[in-house]
Design brief:
- The chain has 294 residues and is mainly alpha-helical.
- The protein has four domains: 83 residues, no CATH class; 35 residues; 73 residues, no CATH class; 61 residues.
- Helix content is 67%, strand content 10%.
- It has a three-stranded antiparallel sheet.
- Helix 5 packs across helix 7, helix 6 crosses helix 7 and helix 8 runs antiparallel to helix 9.
- The radius of gyration is 66 Å and the shape is rod-shaped.
Length: 294
Amino acid sequence: MRAVQRVRPSFQRAAFGVLWTQILGVGTGGFVALNLRCPICSRAAAVPDSWLEGRVRCKACQSVYSVRDAVQCGESSMLSDDVSAPEERMSRSDKLIWGFGLGIPVMFLIVFLAYIFGTRDTWEADNYSKITDLCEVIESAIVKSDDTAAVAGCEELFRFIGDRKIGAEYLAERVDAARKAYAPARTRLDEARRSRETRELAERQEREAREQVESRQREAREAADAARRPRERYYRDRHGAIMSESETEYKLSEIRRNIAAMPDTLERAFREGQLRALEKEWDRIKRDGPVWER
């Protein structure tokens, strides 16, 4: 029982080796298959040549027999995959070699194509229309000699493209033309700006000089008018109040006109007496001299 239990895994490995040899059609490094037939039930079996001294159990009738006895009795035939059908074995080997030889390059080709198409930059194709529109705006501005629009369009185009290299030849030529036209347009625009700033500076300086002249002339006229006007004198009465000469003379003249318009009555005589007192006091104040003049 111990011998029977020991040979079963080896028999399974031998059968698997024979099956593997038949499937691949190539040798297993000198493996020799012993094709046996059970002496009891004639059930076929296959074992490796290393089992020549062992015993096997028939899977059909469960009888145990010796491999060497079966070989000596002529119930087995030795078929080695190294000596049987060499031409067929070589042809299958060549097929495997050719299969591996062609499979590896095909695999590398598939990986390469996947890398190329998977990592391809589609920015240019996605933004083709926008780049074309910007180039048309720049070309139209150049034709119209509008340096401001041309410079603005070029700067927007360069800012949009950045450091990318345009692959399409037609598009690359238009972008290069825009780059070549940018420098002269930028130079003309800068010159026009400097000329405008110089002109504005000259106009501002001229305006400031004219304003200064007008200010000096206005001050001179005011000084002349002040010199022609009589100087106003101010007096102080006995109560300490400041009296203007022109204002006091105007009030006295008003009083005289009012008295002249009154009928010849006692009230008129009273008003005339008050007027003479005011005139006398005014004369006294003027004799004391003005407090200041302006």
